[in-house]
Amino acid sequence: MISDKSLSQIVIEQPAAAAVFDMFNLDYCGDGIQTIAEACKGDLAQAGLIAARVDEAVMNGAFLNMNFKVKDLSLSALCSYFVEKHHGTIRSVLPSLLVQAMKVTEKHKIRHPELMEIRDLLVNLKVELDHHMMKEEEMVYPRIKVLEEIVYDEQDGGDFNYRMLKDPIKVLLREHENSVETFRKIKVLSNNFKVPDDACDLYNLFYQNLLAFRTDLRLHVHLENKLLFPKVNALLRVFSDEVI
Ligand SMILES: [Fe+2]
Ligand SMILES: [Fe+2]
How far is the CA of 201 from the centre of ligand 1 (A)? Predict the structure, then answer.
């Protein structure tokens, strides 16, 4: 039953729920331990509405259009999913989002100086995410695949250094928190992504795209933190008590 599960668990089982929770300002990132009803502070009508919207989103495949469950993927398939789906989104969407941020800021910065801060946060975010994705794709994901082969194919793990996986993952976790924090700041600066009355069409489009990008990034971070890394931990426990 969806009503018994935490927000975090619902998103792991049904990633389409992420967009609905973001729309209703329910925070499934971080601990995300509340149920929908708890997050709605006992407003059962609102909780029922949100649960129905989650069902609808899942049925329609409205957000991810996926025909597999991420939680059931092997570690190597999960790493490929992150590269193709979420890293692909960052690489295809963030550059054009930056172009929109520059244009909208130039046009509206006198009356809306907060746009300059949002633009600068996005510029920094792109630098950080490019570096972050490179670390994942060239170092961490390949080592996760090797770990999986050692455990499931019973290959010799003699020269596999487990610390070479654990230490970089600790860095990735800090970087995830930084990117979530960047969007917390953007949410405040943008008045929860609400366009002002004098906004032009491009301003509207920029905030719409920014919101969609935020939803994808939060989901990406959540699935790495709460699905990928715990699965890695479970395999590391085969060899050592010292986990991430
Ligand atoms: Fe990633
Ligand atoms: Fe990541």
Answer: 32
